[in-house]
Amino acid sequence: MKTALLSSRLATRSLKSSHGGNGHGPRHARRASCAPTAASVPHAFAWLKRPKHNLIAGRWVPAASGKVFDVFNPADASVLARVPDSDKEDIHRAVAAARRAFDAGPWRRMKPNERGKLLWRVGDLILEHADELAEIESLDNGKPRAVARVADVPLAADLFHYMAGWATKIEGHTIPISVPYAPDARFHAFTLREPVGVVGQIIPWNFPLLMAAWKLGPALTTGNCVVLKPAEQTPLTALRLGELLLEAGLPEGVVNIVTGFGETAGAALAAHDDVDKVAFTGSTEVGRLIVHAAAGNLKKVSLELGGKSPNIVFKDVGDLDAAIAGAANAIFFNHGQCCCAGSRLMVEKDVFDAVVAGVAAHAKKIKLGPGLDPGTQMGPLVSEEQFRRVTNYMHQGKQEGACYVTGGEKAGGRGYFVQPTVVKDVKPSMSIVREEIFGPVVVAEPFTKPEELISRANDTPYGLAAGVWTRDIAKAHRIAAELRAGTVWINCYNVFDAALPFGGYKQSGWGREMGHEVLEHYTETKAVVVGL
Ligand code: ADP
Q1: Is the CB–ligand 1 distance for residue 339 below 6 Å?
Q2: Band of the pLDDT at 41, cuts 50, 70, 90?
Q3: Which residue is catalytic, options 137, 232, 338, 339?
Q4: What's the gap in Å between 20 CA and the centre of ligand 1?
Q5: 494 CA distance to ligand 1 centroid (A)?
Q6: How many Å lie between the centroid of ligand 1 and the Cα of residue 140?
Q7: CATH number for the domain whose boundaries are 310-497
Q8: Would you state the pLDDT for residue 516?
Q9: N or C terminus: fewer CB in 10 A for the chain?
Q10: What is residue 471's DSSP assignment?
């Protein structure tokens, strides 16, 4: 239970990955600028004021068209920065730079331990700039600075440190072969694992720095060259990370960072004929578009997509308070903007009322506010579009007849704040039960028969994560084995580590992030046979 308590503590001080609607189009009604002051963000302030460019071939350059777009602070809709509004031409230049860097080979031919040391240095630099990165993230995404400082930033650093160690361990095998049609011949056969080549990476806005780290770490340790497109809502920490990559000594063109919208820059990257692989984290809907776009040159695809994760509480959980805190953390962490959010709370009937009341009590106590306010436990949603999406779901649930135990409305203030929401008396057909809301909205359902539980828990097109709360360890293992989900947390939730693979069954994605599993997606296996 300790881990559960730790993660729920994190949540009350305030992980995609994916996704509500498409965050496209002019996103925000412009309001009076409320730019951060030097006093409020001492580390980030000077950086935010500097012009923002794309990183292509080791240089910071504007979009070829010269266009820019505004990046907003979701706490008050003020403009934080302007970044390049890149299109096909910028993507083409970035891909060409990555191709030159890959073919010229300074990165893939670098001694593995040198590559590892450089990535380790990136992790160190992230930690050295942790306060600044947490401030930028908080301003850009809306999450509490304290959460970014204890979760997003150290996890990003840890990912680079973990992946640095893999640089020297990407090994093939020697394979004893028999070759039936050559009975008298002898061979020496072995495999090599080589980088895939030029990789396009498209990331979402819910954990902007961390998602950049999840994508860049494995691509770089295996010797690939990258074009990274951050989400249009939250491009800032990726740009700051680009500076740190150069400071660490990354050769030019190995990582290129291009800001822009999904339909333009993102689509051009996914479709580009000189990109060997595309790695995407975002909505299932856009994941499908990526697959179609990738078909042109049959580039490799890995996807980390949406979820509607069941979080199951049994009456024999023992410490009910810990389970309640864990269930609240499962949905409210990062404002519910987590692909793995425990958004379907399934509770054994005997303790249903107590758990629902407990989670609602947690919800009511959550202090909403701007991410930089030290008292804030939950910030605004990331954008006006996301705000509309979540509030629409809230209203739809009411129209469909669900009972709102708490929340269900927008919250006050100029930013995109919504009330943490607990809903019960739902039917399996309701949109709030079936669809990914990607906000702080949990639907609670009682269950009586454990045998029906599994089919209900698995009754979703998604399969990213699940939680099980019980003291009966055999039951916990039986249920974990039956759940069609890439991660099952038992007596804890939202526990992430660079060494743990993360990804989805069913429509939650293809492949895994992190752990050694992710390295499969960034390497090609070459079989070499020597006639002796
Ligand atoms: P969300 O719903 O969380 O905004 P999306 O799936 O829309 O998630 O966006 C995640 C990432 O995908 C962002 O970087 C976005 O710009 C990009 N994206 C959106 N549409 C497309 C598209 N048609 N092709 C490629 N990338 C896209």
Answers
A1: no
A2: low
A3: 339
A4: 10
A5: 23
A6: 17
A7: 3.40.309.10
A8: 98
A9: C
A10: S
Q: How confident is the model at residue 474 (pLDDT cuts 50, 70, 90)?
A: very high
Find the 343 Cα to ligand 1 centroid distance in Å: 22
C-alpha dihedral (135, 140, 143, 149), degrees to nearest 10: -30
Nearest by Cα to 490 from 296, 302, 308, 312 = 312
For ligand 1, is residue 279 a contact (CB within 6 Å)? no
Closest listed residue to residue 28, CA positions, set 94, 86, 72: 72
Mutating to test ligand 1, I would choose from 17, 22, 27 the residue with most ligand atoms within 8 A of its C-beta, which is 22
Residue closest via CA to ligand 1's atom 3 equals: 19
pLDDT (mean) for 56-60: 98
What does the alpha-carbon distance between residue 38 and residue 216 come to, in Å, rounded to a whole number? Answer: 31
Task: Tell me if 202 CB under 6 Å of ligand 1.
Answer: yes
Which ranges of 59-205 does DSSP label H, i.e. alpha helix?
A: 88-104, 112-128, 130-141, 145-147, 153-166
CATH class of 2-7+39-305+509-528: alpha beta
Sheet arrangement for strand 198-202: 59-61, 54-56, 255-257, 225-229, 198-202, 277-281, 300-304, 509-510
Residue nearest to atom 19 of ligand 1 (CA): 262
- Structural domain boundaries of the chain? 2-7+39-305+509-528, 310-497
CB 397 within 8 A of CB 432: yes
Contact 11, 324 (CB under 8 A): no
Helix (H, G, I), strand (E, B) or coil at 186: coil
Q: Does 20 contact ligand 1 (Cβ within 6 A)?
A: yes
* 339 carries an active-site annotation: yes
Peptide bond into 17 cis (omega under 30): yes
Whole-prediction pTM:
0.93
Is 436 annotated in the active site?
Answer: no
Please state at what angle helix 112-128 crosses helix 236-247, rounded to 10 degrees. 130
CA-closest candidate to residue 336, choices 401, 412, 393, 279: 393
- Decide: 3 in ligand 1 pocket, CB within 6 A: no
